[in-house]
Amino acid sequence: MELPKPGEPHLRLERLAGTWIGEERYQPSPMFPQGGTAQAMVENRMALDGFALVQDYCHALDGVTTFRGHGILRWDAAAAHYVFHWFDSGGGNPVEFRGGFEGDVLALEANSPQGHMKATWDLAETGTYRYEMQVSQDGNQWFPFMASVCRRT
After folding, report:
1. pLDDT of 88-111, one tens digit each?
2. CA neighbor of 146 nearest in space, from 45, 57, 5, 40
3. Which ranges of the chain have pLDDT less than 70?
4. What is the pLDDT of residue 78?
5. How many Cβ atoms from other residues are within 10 Å of residue 96's Cβ?
6. pLDDT of 33
7. Which CATH topology does 8-152 take?
8. Is the dihedral of CA 110, 153, 74, 7 positive or negative?
9. Which is nearest to 87 in space by CA: 116, 64, 60, 58?
C-alpha cells in the first residue's frame, strides 16, 4: 500500500518553514495601552511527513519573553482551505483560523470568544514575510492590532 503524499497546498506551506526574527509594532489596545514594539522570534517546521506546519512563536519586550504561542497550520482538503489551530500563553481558549492563499499572501480569519481576527502573511519578498493582525468586535468594523516584518535567519 502506498502512503499519501503531500500535494501542492502542503508544499506551499514550506515557504513559511524556518527560523524568523523581526520587530512587531502594536497599535494602542488593552494589551498595549500605549502601543509599542516587541521583538518576535518564530520557528516554523514542516511536520507529519509534510502535511502540516508547526509554529512556535514568542515575543520579547526589552529582552524579556512576555508572550508565547503555538500553532498548527494544515490543509483541509474536504473544505478546500487552510486551517490554523492557535494556542497561546494569554490564557484564552484555542482559536481556529481558516482561509487561503491569494497570490503570495496567506489570509486567514477567526471568530472566537475574544472577537474576530484577520491574520495575513505576505510572502512576496524572498526571505521576508510581512505579518498583520486586524481585530473586530462585530466582524464588520476592523482595526489594525499589530504588524511585523520578519526575516529568515
Report:
1. 998 889 999 999 999 999 999 999
2. 40
3. none
4. 96
5. 13
6. 86
7. Lipocalin (2.40.128)
8. positive
9. 58
